[in-house]
Amino acid sequence: MTSIAKLPRPFRGIITPLVTPLINDESLDEKGLNLLLNHIIEGGVNGAFILGTTGECASLSYKLKHKLIALTCELAKGRIPVFVGITDSSPAESLSLAKVAEETGASAVVAAPPYYFDLGQQELITYFMNLADKLPLPLFVYNIPSQTKIMIQPETVKILASHHKIVGMKDSSGSATYFNSLLYHMKDDPSFTLLVGPDEMMASAVLMGGHGGVNAGSNFYPRLFVDLYKSAIKGNLKEVLQFQEKVMEFSAKTYQVGTTGTTFLKGLKAAMSISGFFENYTASPLTPFGEREMEIIKENLKHLNRK
Amino acid sequence: MTSIAKLPRPFRGIITPLVTPLINDESLDEKGLNLLLNHIIEGGVNGAFILGTTGECASLSYKLKHKLIALTCELAKGRIPVFVGITDSSPAESLSLAKVAEETGASAVVAAPPYYFDLGQQELITYFMNLADKLPLPLFVYNIPSQTKIMIQPETVKILASHHKIVGMKDSSGSATYFNSLLYHMKDDPSFTLLVGPDEMMASAVLMGGHGGVNAGSNFYPRLFVDLYKSAIKGNLKEVLQFQEKVMEFSAKTYQVGTTGTTFLKGLKAAMSISGFFENYTASPLTPFGEREMEIIKENLKHLNRK
Amino acid sequence: MTSIAKLPRPFRGIITPLVTPLINDESLDEKGLNLLLNHIIEGGVNGAFILGTTGECASLSYKLKHKLIALTCELAKGRIPVFVGITDSSPAESLSLAKVAEETGASAVVAAPPYYFDLGQQELITYFMNLADKLPLPLFVYNIPSQTKIMIQPETVKILASHHKIVGMKDSSGSATYFNSLLYHMKDDPSFTLLVGPDEMMASAVLMGGHGGVNAGSNFYPRLFVDLYKSAIKGNLKEVLQFQEKVMEFSAKTYQVGTTGTTFLKGLKAAMSISGFFENYTASPLTPFGEREMEIIKENLKHLNRK
Amino acid sequence: MTSIAKLPRPFRGIITPLVTPLINDESLDEKGLNLLLNHIIEGGVNGAFILGTTGECASLSYKLKHKLIALTCELAKGRIPVFVGITDSSPAESLSLAKVAEETGASAVVAAPPYYFDLGQQELITYFMNLADKLPLPLFVYNIPSQTKIMIQPETVKILASHHKIVGMKDSSGSATYFNSLLYHMKDDPSFTLLVGPDEMMASAVLMGGHGGVNAGSNFYPRLFVDLYKSAIKGNLKEVLQFQEKVMEFSAKTYQVGTTGTTFLKGLKAAMSISGFFENYTASPLTPFGEREMEIIKENLKHLNRK
Known about the structure:
Four copies of one chain form a homotetramer. By secondary structure, the first copy, chain A, is an alpha/beta fold. Helix content of chain A is 46%, strand content 13%. Chain A has helices at 30-43, 62-76, 91-104, 121-134, 145-148, 154-160, 176-185, 202-207, 222-234, 237-255, 263-274, 291-302; strands spanning 13-17, 22-24, 27-28, 47-50, 82-85, 108-111, 139-143, 166-171, 193-196, 212-214. In chain A, the strands form two sheets. Chain A has an eight-stranded parallel beta barrel with strand order 1-4-5-6-7-8-9-10, surrounded by six helices. In chain A, strands 2-3 form a two-stranded antiparallel sheet. In chain A, helix 6 packs parallel to helix 7 and helix 11 packs across helix 12. Chain A is globular. The two termini of chain A are 33 Å apart. Residues 1-5 of chain A have low confidence and may be disordered. Chains in contact: A-B, A-D, B-C, C-D. The A-B interface holds A 25-26, 53, 57-64, 89-93, 96, 113-120, 122-124, 126-127, 130, 146-147, 149, 259-262, 283-287 and B 25-26, 53, 57-64, 89-93, 96, 113-120, 122-124, 126-127, 130, 146-147, 149, 259-262, 284-287.
């Protein structure tokens, strides 16, 4: 079993927020999952994060979630640490997922705020502190206001960081103002991990002091994101801009097709399926891209050099 | 077991969206639940709706939800039909709750859209149609954009109503423009039930042709809401305005204390606890009102005539 | 000149929020304005409100606004009172418009909150109180959060109503919860006028105690709105529902064509132009409906009985 | 007169979005304006932008705007180019301000979308293209969704850039995802200027290829922002982080006091007044900070080293 002590603090590098390969709403594509894990590990990423937004956390049944947690840990074979999303509207169910994560060998859990009721910052503090008290694994707090409709204020993060089990944060707000405020507020606590979500801003976040990224695009292009991260860490700006252009090209050509708020996810699954990783299946209530969008993405992908 | 055939179409009257009496996050206050059920049945309401927003649906564990469904059906003893909220971000879990509802004798289920991902109207249609296909009980669609961040368009409702298991709707948007649009779009399908959520607009919705209300205040004042409903049905405007003033007074004095988006729920639980129904406990992640707010509500309640 | 004393308190009935007939961005269609004024006065409405949202207030130059104010007052010839919208992001410009309104014989002014900066409720109070101090005419406060992004809280309205020049309110929020809260908070001040904006909820607002409507549809169907208002005042619910269906039909068939947030305005101008009142011109930055939408509205209008 | 040809393309460096020093709603503090201009020019900034959000554009009367434009151009004496905000809800008034700007010697104008009506992207394109056709000066498009409630899509920007008078953009969205998308979409048009608004993200935007910043904090600390910009241009990351910490400290200690959406502006004016530049007056409808907030900012400023 991995223990709290085993994860470096801060945790640095690229963590892939794993797409969940599915055959249908109730069945994992186990072969696809294995392929994907090998692909990202060969690409050099530093961790796998399952059951995040990219992993369609909210849509999956608990039975399937348990299966996914166990199987990912088994297939990862300790090659990279596994981070498990336990975001839920019910705190009891979050805790229950955390127990499964601990039992199957995951390294840490990741939780966004419960996402049904409007919460105040004080309620967020109480919630996360109580949750951390009971957790068997270290916790990364997950800021994703596009889905949870709440911004975890930097002052709140600072308070949460005082809990010994709350070891870091993933910010998917897309706001550089916010992320730089996090860096400023946490500057006296260098062991607290600050990771950034959107692919498009990983490099600039790392240049300013961020510890790495949890970037959807690394499902497809693990090596590219690792390279971009390393260039940023070295401060090689010329290289950064070269890799960044590829990241932006992938974003423009796969995430921006279609019109709803989940096109990044649908586009990514579409691209992975076109590349042969698994079928283009998204769990209900999302519907996968249809013929028209698939054609556009197929055409767009032709002009990308996959690496 | 209650079957689809047993519910009148349209369903008319007042349904109480039951507050969930709790001892702690994991334990129901069974005595409190019994008291509450007897209170609303004596008050003359036409149905009980558990696991709605007022019932803190999203916060409770599945274990507790199952217990609540079974116990409510048992305690209701068939005196009023029980409607069970199955809203969840995972369609599989919604279905699973529906099965429990059917097995324990509930009359219908109620579902808001899955509330994590942004969905388009077409995805809503696909979601509800697929869900209804598998449901063992009739379905009321639940529009509550304050929590789900999506408005179910009247045109979408019209399409959903073509499914024989989708028999009605609860609208908690607060928008009279929207509710009147629903009435207009559904005018040729008089068997499709249209109920309104906010206490403050039940009377006007019924005057304009709505079939009734699912009003939080009827936990406290069941008779008042039944009387208001009946006045509206009779078209006795003078009586309507008299009862309406009491409804507004209760709203102003208990729902508007405090500042977060859940004050209606916290205020209602506070008022119920002050009146001796059960303890003032809200499930995590919500924190119940503290001393200061309790004092304000206690003072406010003194000036109300409970009936 | 009309003085504060001349407007009845509360002011009751239907006020038409006048569409602004335009030849181009800089020129009024004076003939169209005259036609429109005669049309609504013959239809029996109780007032004309120029430079509201329906009148494209925000888009017009000051020169054109001055012209419109003077001309409307002149053409109205005292047959109905003229209410002048003075909403602006600059308080000084609002005051300047109010002076023009007073000089040309308008009866009252109407102001929404300044709409660029986020304001707090206390800032709203300070703003409206200071404005009222300097105004030469009585003021109606205008709540339209869809455009101004702020809700004027009922408690704020109550404070504003203590100013002798703040005599009423137009609420275009569409929220029945909010409007009924206004009615409740203002119940001890029966001289304070409460009017409602959206066509679709005028009848229910009047049934619950509202004083009337400022309804865009009365540009097209003045008599229908007057009839609906009168039925509601008399409490004749059967009649209310008959007229309401026509109001809803017009809304569904002209306001809901197209997809942006201004379809009600574009649809209304399209319908008026098809009926021969004036050209289908909307001021920049809005673009009027094109061929496709015009065809739909033309087709839709065929099935309406204009009265 | 400055002509289009005179501004370098792209325009690089720090432009100060000037605070408007006021004695009251109708009177400029001319001495304060002169002090401020000399302060930023001595600090080395590359331009002054008047009538932006920081300059309280929307609140000021046209008379005062005209005075401010003329006086700023006169006092600047050609030492730095003057950019004039012409954002307005009325296109005609925007054009009228642009004429004043041209006549008094300004170098360019800056316009956000009209901010009352909801506009579609096509309406934005039509609006900006038509405006540019008539403008006597080059135009910078201004993206500030917090106030205008619309995001100018990167694809829209690309289309706008095809107009010879639309020469650049200021983005105040705070989104790094968006700004990096702009950089990507405009990569083949290196003469199109891309400037970023929020102080906190100027450095990272420049590191990724942005041309500079329009940063409120440069009113107070012009030299600091110029130094930070130069470090970023040179790619000296160590220096960037040193200066960035000062920028973040100023942001945390002056912009984050208070709770409404305009605290950055009120805090900045408070800090400038404490430092003796001018009185702490904000134009109606904003109310300046009171005693309590002034004490906090005074205390906070003690711990900053002004340079």
